[in-house]
Amino acid sequence: MLRCSDCIERAVVLCECNKSLFCTKCCQPHTTEKSYENDTLNHNLISIDQVLLEGFSNSWEAKTSFIKRFGVFFEGHLDQIKSLNISLDGNFLVSGSLDKTVRVWDLQKKLQIAMFIGHKSPVNSVIFSSNQNLIISGSSDRTIRLWDFLEKNQILILNGHTKEVKSLAMAHDNIFVSAGEDNYYRVWKLPKNYKGNSSEKIKSPKIYVGVDNKLSIKRNHIQNNAMKIIDEQKGKIATLVNMKINCADFTSDLAYVVLSLQNKTICFWDTHKQCIESELKGSTSDIYKMSISKDHKYVLTASDENFIRVWDIANKQQIGILEGHEDSVTCVVFSDDRNFVVSGSKDRSVRVWDFNKKTVIAIFNGHTYDITSVAITTDNLYVVSSSIDRSLRIWSILEKRQDSEYIGNTDIIWCTAISPNNQYAIFGTKCMKIGLYNLFEKRLEVFLEGHTYMINRIIVSNDNAYVASKSPEERIIWNLTTKTKEYTLEQKIIYSLAISPDNTYLVSGVLNSLALWNLKTKRLEKVLTNHTGCVICAVISKNNEFVVSGSRDLSIIVWNLQSNNLVVVFKGHKDWVNCLAMTSDCEKIISGSSDRTIKIWSISSKIQIFNISLNTDNVTCMKISNNDEILVVGSRDRTILVWNLQEMKKINVLKGHTYSINSIALSYDCKYIVSGSADNTVRVWHIDKDEALYVINDHNDWVNGVYISNDNRFIVSASKDKTVKIWDMEKRMNVAVMIGHTSIITCLAVSQDGKYAYTASQGGVIRCFDLEGKKEEFFIFPLEEENVCRWIQKYPEFNVCLNEFAEFDD
């Protein structure tokens, strides 16, 4: 809330229509007292929820009184005000509104002195530059605009965000930060005394990734067990720690990511400088467990060594060793106040350490097998430990003895957590159950069931209301009060994509269903659910009438794209249906299967009309020519077959790949074939020649999708290495690398006009890439993603568990 300079009260609000500012105490138009430096609104942007007040009942009376007294009211915007910012000298106010305008007000004269028009969508955030020469605005149109405050005109548009720009903040020395709904934070540097006529370009050299103001290790920084920092301006990797990462965590202030690498080192990545700051050596074996103190000063690491190493984060050095265990340390944790350290070991003991003195204060023996996890209550009175011996034991630190225990029948306990109010010890088991042990009553209250895989992580919300649990295949949030499942997120791999010729619809095969997306609204319109096995291929007819899906249930289903009704189900294959094609008359469907056959079906007659038995391996992919004369077929036996459909005979066999053919494309003029393989290569063939014209050997993993443009100028490839690459066919060189996916790319589809490439991932995310602009245009998350973000917004402590859902780990 703003402070009024006339009555020195925090009472400046928006009027009831959210378009004007006035003081409800003295009925003065809004002014500010610049001497109040403790006002958080003096230097930061103000969002609408900060100026909307509880006591709005008298606002119209105040406005009426103000009009009677002065005959004028501070007004101008035509819709709700979304953001306000006051200049450092306190003389000017800038406002951004749903009316798409930015307006500047003279607070002394109480007049609007400028209106900036240019944004195409609501203005969500406005700020002054450090020197007050510029006004910066961020909008739902995904742009950031710079306005010359003195000349009162627009001087620059900054692009980069792929979704709404939600917030701006000025840092120092003309550096400002933007945050977008695309989960990116961008840091922008304005040249010194920049006024718009400088030859220097404004850059966004630093890109941070996160969900709801929380950085995420899993989103874009760790891929293939290696850490990659991407320079999006150049579209390539700027920094790479090409080493397997055993474990990683953020410091609580998000200043560093601490990584344990396969080369037995501790690595500190500075999240602000976006670089590896230092690598610390000392451990003689791989580090698999670490704990960072809540004051982000120290890191504990546990390995196959019989001791715990203590690292100073600020000085980047090892400062001590906690020695005493007689076998490998399996788990370690700091107490909240950092006074104690608790560790568990393969020596079957639990030890409590005085962190400041680096000495053992208690040794608890009782477990009969390796310790799997440890936790300490917030009051530092009790330790909870779990073991492969299927027991959960509670130890009193003061009395140095076991206080109570729970012994399961057949279930190994892998992880534990203690609720902040110290009421529950919550544990996850190998048999997929969550146990709630009441520490006050010393008894097991209930088992929560719902996971389908072994539980390996548990987090309790700070308000003791919810528990988040994680397994390899799903994450579940439980209501701790009702002891019921609140929300489940499951992995949903997308196996297939198809685009309607008019670019209106995109269909994706997700588990046993076919999801129909409207590309205009980016919304899911319908889910077609008649298959009983995973949908692994799909095609849309050229007249936009039919969508056809093939499945692991051995069937092919034809749907009416407009009514979403099932037209016909074709059965006849004896193994998975892996690929589909449709003739240009929209009458015939061609299918390829793991049963080593190609079948042709008639939609109108609803029967199979032809069968081709191949002396090859599984048919994996196919493409039909635009004139319906040529069919090219890829197989798991590493060959490509070229068929004349008019004569129903094989006319060529192309050999060269060393592993299965995963994807295939045929040029519009039927001269060239492009193939992608599990041998990590893309090969370009002339349809009449036996050998490849050339081989593209630039991907680091399977090539799961290929495309050739209608004019034969460029090739697009999508790979399991999570990249989409564009190649100049004439120059035979890579011209662009497009990134974004953080899990394996499973399939590729390109719009009929060749402008957009759509890719899907094992994590269930669909991304659209602009092939002309060579950039990501937008992405579609699974339905759960929006819910995940809401949970993280309310419970940031769940971030470390839930944020991996953005795209599942490979």
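Second entry:
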Amino acid sequence: SMCVPNIAPGHCGDVFMTKTLISKSSRMRGMVCISCTFLTGHSSLLLAPKLRLATIHFLIVFFLQVLLVFAKEDSQSNGFCWACEKANFRCNMARTPESALECFLEKHHDLVIIDHRHSRHFDAEALCRSIRAVNFSENTVIVAVVKRPDREEASVMPLINAGFNRRYVENANMMACYNELLQLEHGEVQSQFKLRAGNAIFTALEQSQEGIEITSEDQIIQYVNPAYESIMGYQQGELIGKEIIEVPKSEKNKPDLLETINSCIRKGKEWQGIYYAKKKNGDSVQQNVKITPVIGQGGKIRHYVSLKWPLNDNNKVMLDPSAFWSPDIHSSKHKDRRKGSLDVRSTSRGSDGSSQRRHSSMARIHSMTIEAPITKVINIINAAQESSPMPVAEALDRVLEILRTTELYSPQLGTKDEDPHTNDLVGGLMTDGLRRLSGNEYIFSTKHAVDVLPTFQNPHHIPSHLITPLSLNDIPPRIAQTMENEDSWDFDIFNLEAATMKRTLTYLGLKIFSRFGVCEFLNCPEATLRSWLQVIEANYHSSNSYHNSCHAADVLHATAYFLCKERVKQSLDPIDEVAALIAATVHDVDHPGRTNSFLCNAGSELAVLYNDTAVLESHHAALAFQITTRDDKCNIFKNIERNEYRSLRQAIIDMVLATEMTKHFEHVNKFVNSINKPLAESVKSILTSPENRILVKRMLIKCADISNPCRPLELCIEWAGRISEEYFAQTDEEKRQGLPVVMPVFDRNTCSIPKSQISFIDYFITDMFDAWDAFADLPNLMQHLDNNFKYWKSLDDRKLHSLRPPPE
């Protein structure tokens, strides 16, 4: 009946460190949050270096210990023993209640499993109550193994009243026992470890020198720590349960300060600033206050956490405990933890002391030997704040807030007038990843997937209708005549599509690549280029109304047009021009006619492959190189040097990925701030910078990709009809398959095409082409854009939903 550890004798503890709980304490919105993760391994402490976050670390190392209490060995006890061994848990077996209690008092097990099937051996409920009577058992999970009922199911309340957390209906199957242990480990046991870690956090709150106050969403005080009691002169019992408004206020605050604070925190935003509080004795104390809303269940604010530092007359934080701490609360060993005072400046927008904030962590940032550029910028701003007047310091504080965001060049995706067309368009084009249905469930089902993993055409098996002449000299006169003005912006791509029987990309590609000397640059025969163009075109889906080879040819045409502009020619090298032409040709290859959001929602293989991030753009770039390099007959890169190939490949991939709409504003804003604005000062140095050449190429292909609103009106109308039809088809399929509808306004029965075009021009086109025109000088495009916008606006003003007005 003695406890027998399931561990070989003579081994060191670290060898058997088979389960480790790492509780990472991180400051989320100013509130200390605990998250726990189970990790398996024999050297779990080696994981510690991976936890170097910008915040504190809370590491708890433990061995998950299980106590089995079975009066005699049977298949059920053997099943749990085997399961513990398989799960690498430390296991002890006890045969009597006495030995079980003795073992529990010694080992403090995390999980206790008691045999409740046979009352003649011992009273399982009495044993459970005895274990619960031990003061450190509150975080132990206790499970009762019960008989399988042979008639009506019995109530579990007696077990719950005895202190059991869970019952297990006898099942000696080893995998059933193992699965039960896994569920317990990741369920009740993990929750208990979170609570155990939470106890340590509450100890930290109790020992903290800052006053801490926690209120409910209704501003009812739920907790204050001893430091708060000492600063304010109240006892916990006098405050807990009271509403904040019941606590006396100081008259020294500005009349509208409370309204400002409440307005800020009710929006879920943190507020920090100077606030005067009234102590119990009636004195006012100046405090630096930080209030953080805590988002809880349902995504709503459930608590507010306030940290309060008392300030002296010079607005210095009084962090010496002797200044406000009673000696019976803390021992003397804590009194020198934080000495002296520290300048404090606030990020608040409404308080009269809003410029009084300083960051104690800046000393560590200044001492860093390897600084990121953003760190240098923050250091410069902080240094400038030291000697700046209050309004300037406040403005610099707001600058720092902006700089600490992750998407510096991407605007908030709100719209000025909350237009549903714009909202749907922006949401559909600028979001990747899973989208919710009406409830909380996510769609992720392979039966709905659009499977577009590479199944590309082989150059030896090009469909007969895509075969082209051997060279430019063999092009039929009718097609050659159609392409005579291909260097003009007003070139009619749809005439070429009809003349070539939808082989637009190959014919136009041969003409444009010849004009730019691409074969000479790549040192490849024209026959190889022709084969490459054919196989690329064969991998565009002619069934798509918009994303087909005609669109690729249109983007190639626009790219070639932009490359001929003087400012662009000054910026780019020959390798950049070749990369741009190739990127334009392949930028939508194998496009399925559905958006990234659709693929992610449908759980397509591509979305899984590319982790719901830039799914199509990644696929286009990857497939283009697979197609090109798998057969020498179409490998246009075969004869260039390795270094040149790598540079060319990198440039092509970068440009194709730049067509992803989620990065639209980032690319445009970087272009404006890095190139257009500095151009007024130094043209040559700006244009020849390698970093800026990348920005120019990204902007070039982006403008080429969505240049339809800048084409002549008839072409613009045709493109609008084609993209609308593709979006209509997607909405139809989403409804048919029960997927989330990404762009609800693109319902063929209700959609207003003029409104959708107006929204697209307003939100995506105008600013981008204004910037591109300022750089490349494109007055004819801007005139077309203006004319087309007026056309769509006139249709919308007449409440028309169609592409054209009705015949007179």
